[in-house]
Amino acid sequence: MAADAGKPKRGTYRHGDLRNALVRAGLELARQGGPEAVVLRAATREAGVAPNAAYRHFADRAALLHAVSQEAMAQVARTMEAEQAALPPTADPAAAARARFRAVGTGYLRFAQEEPGLFRTAFHVPGDMSHAADDSAAGGSGKTPFELLGAALDGLVETGRLPADRRPGAEFLAWSAVHGLAALLIDGPLRGLQPDQVHDAGQHLIDMVERGL
Questions:
Q1: Per-residue pLDDT tens for 12-22?
Q2: How far apart are CA 61 and CA 64, in angstroms?
Q3: Which residues form a coiled coil (predicted)?
Q4: Domain 69-212 falls in which CATH fold?
Q5: Which positions ≥6 away from 131 have C-beta within 8 Å?
Q6: pTM score, two decimals?
Q7: Three-state SS sequence of the chain
Q8: Residue 175: is its pLDDT beyond 80?
Q9: What mean pLDDT is predicted for residues 133-146?
Q10: Residue closest to 73 by CA, chosen among 148, 18, 154
């Protein structure tokens, strides 16, 4: 009897959604190993197709990694949106704007802690802001993480909590502070903190950003 007798044969890919299947495979690779783990051959193996099949949709590894990065970014956005959606209702517009702003940072840090591989991959992007508003990185609201932060800052201005003359460029300062803490928590010397310490550090940082603004 042949050595491979009785083994199930790998089926051919038939459902016509190969690109999305490769992105999903790339996301799983990124979840486990970060952006370095996203390679075409591994993605095709996960998707159950021949390696050459990937080139119908992605010219090279960089193209696949970019698509996976954008989808990971969209997942960051959805986590931030979920944090905002869970806020208790309030009749005070200023309090609501403040809570939505804080939820942006809380959701961002939560995603970094829960999905460090995807978080690293989400920000494995070109060295400029050219994709910060790309629709493929948007969450359910149609906004990317960067746009959600901008909208939250605009809400602070509209309700009088943030002086209009301090609004220009505020998203870069807030983003830098929160992303810096996220990086220290998942890859730096703060990665050994206990969950309650992580939560407290995040809230204290958001306090500091809010006071600074």
A1: 445 468 889 99
A2: 5
A3: none
A4: Tetracycline Repressor; domain 2 (1.10.357)
A5: 70, 125, 137
A6: 0.86
A7: CCCCCCCCCCCCCCCCCHHHHHHHHHHHHHHHHCHHHCCHHHHHHHHCCCHHHHHHCCCCHHHHHHHHHHHHHHHHHHHHHHHHHCCCCCCCHHHHHHHHHHHHHHHHHHHHHHCHHHHHHHCCCCCCCCCCCCHHHCCCCCCCHHHHHHHHHHHHHHCCCCCHHHCCCHHHHHHHHHHHHHHHHHHCCCCCCCHHHHHHHHHHHHHHHHHHC
A8: yes
A9: 79
A10: 148
In the block, tokens 């703060």 appear at: 190
Q: How far apart are CA 112 and CA 41, in angstroms?
A: 27
Task: Compute the distance between CA of residue 26 and CA of residue 34 in angstroms, rounded to an integer.
Answer: 10
- Alpha-carbon torsion, ordered 186, 190, 196, 200, to 10 deg: -100
**Number of CB atoms found within 10 A of residue 213's CB:** 16
Q: Tell me the two tokens of residue 38.
A: 């996203």
Q: How many residues are recorded in the chain?
A: 213
**The token pair that represents 166 in the structure block:** 């301090």
Position 201, amino acid? A
| Lowest pLDDT segment from 45-54, 117-126, 133-142 | 133-142
- Would you say residue 157 has pLDDT above 80? yes
